[in-house]
Here is the input.
Amino acid sequence: MDFDLSNMDAADALQQSQQRMKALSTVREKMADLEGKGESADGRVRVTCTSQDPVAEIYIDPRAMRMGSQELAEAIREAARRARAHLNEQVEELTAQEFGDTVNPLGMLRDPERLKESLAEMQNMFQKASSDTQRMLDQLQRQLGIRIDTGR
Here is the structure.
């Protein structure tokens, strides 16, 4: 299900927005418990990363100390990349689980055009709601014979 604002009124949009904010909050809380784990091809270097710390733990097998500095550095980078990829996979699964068949915000971040369109739709919807509200207030004031000087 897309986040389609074209046929939605302000109350529905607000409710959907609140649900999405709750899901985002849940994702953020659960992300704190996730750990990405990766190791070098030979298994001598292992890295653990979290959403808060890109290198939360690092283990270097004593045998890895015999490697040249460039080779060791590459093994550390490889393990760190794999740990980050593992963490990203978990975050993807978590957001898919929390958002179900609604629009996953991570997917929107990867598609800037889609994000821009969605934001433009939201802006138009809120501008329309604001205009409708102002018209209703103006009509109500006329019907009640109330004149309020707003400086316009």
Notes: Residues 1-5 have pLDDT under 50 and may be disordered. Residues 112-144 form the longest helix (33 residues).
